[in-house]
């Protein structure tokens, strides 16, 4: 219907198979894929443990953005329409394939001082809030925080 379109789809468990129509988010996919069980074992915990961040959400988002950029580049050189498909489960599988810390070893604890150069501080109605800076900075369209965090309903919904 629209020649030259590039679009990106993100799903939880993949586009084929018995779980293709299931909805999900990072923690559910970590549980279903065995990541939480592996973390339980690594932490010697009696209960499943999730990664200390939403790694599947973040990595899948970065892969989706990268896929969109590749598709736009291909459209510019080859033409055509492009559909980029990514899934949280496949991202988790890929991350697990990169290796794990051997049993008996622990990853070093990360302190606030270790990541302070990756943080921004903004004043808000909640006080000073620290947040992670954008992963990438672009010269011509730099990322910025238009408004600090605010309570739900603090602003009327409208296009800026």
Top keywords for this entry?
two-stranded parallel ribbon, two-stranded antiparallel sheet, 5 helices, 34% helix, globular
Description:
The chain has 160 residues and is of the alpha+beta class. It has a domain of 100 residues. 34% of the residues lie in helices and 15% in strands. The strands form two sheets. It has a two-stranded parallel ribbon with strand order 1-2. The protein has a two-stranded antiparallel ribbon with strand order 3-4. Helix 1 packs across helix 4 and helix 3 crosses helix 4. The protein is globular. The model has no long low-confidence stretch (mean pLDDT 91).
Biggest β-sheet description: 2 strands, parallel
Helix content: 25-40%
Q: Tell the overall outline.
A: globular
Structural class: alpha+beta
Counting H and I runs of at least 4 residues, what is the number of helices?
5
- Tell me the distance between the termini: 30 Å
Main-sheet strand order equals 1-2
* Unreliable sequence segments: none
Beta-strand content: 15-25%
Query: Can you write the helix and strand succession as a string?
Result: EHHHEHHEE
Q: Round the Cα radius of gyration to an integer and report it.
A: 20 Å
Number of strands: 4
Average pLDDT reading: 91
């Amino acid at each position: 219907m629209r020649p030259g379109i590039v679009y990106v789809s993100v799903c939880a468990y993949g586009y084929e198979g018995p779980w293709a129509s299931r909805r999900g988010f990072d923690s559910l996919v970590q549980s279903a894929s065995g990541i939480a069980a592996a973390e339980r074992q690594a932490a010697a915990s009696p209960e499943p443990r999730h990664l200390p961040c939403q790694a599947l959400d973040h990595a899948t988002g970065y892969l989706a953005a990268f896929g969109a950029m590749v598709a736009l580049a291909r459209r510019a050189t080859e033409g055509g329409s492009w559909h980029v498909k990514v899934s949280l489960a496949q991202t988790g599988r890929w991350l697990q394939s990169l290796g794990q810390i051997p049993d008996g070893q622990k990853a070093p604890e990360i302190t606030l001082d270790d990541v302070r150069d990756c943080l921004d501080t903004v004043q808000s109605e909640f006080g000073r809030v620290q947040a992670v800076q954008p992963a990438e900075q672009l010269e011509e369209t730099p990322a910025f925080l238009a408004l600090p965090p605010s309570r739900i309903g603090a602003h009327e919904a409208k296009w800026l």
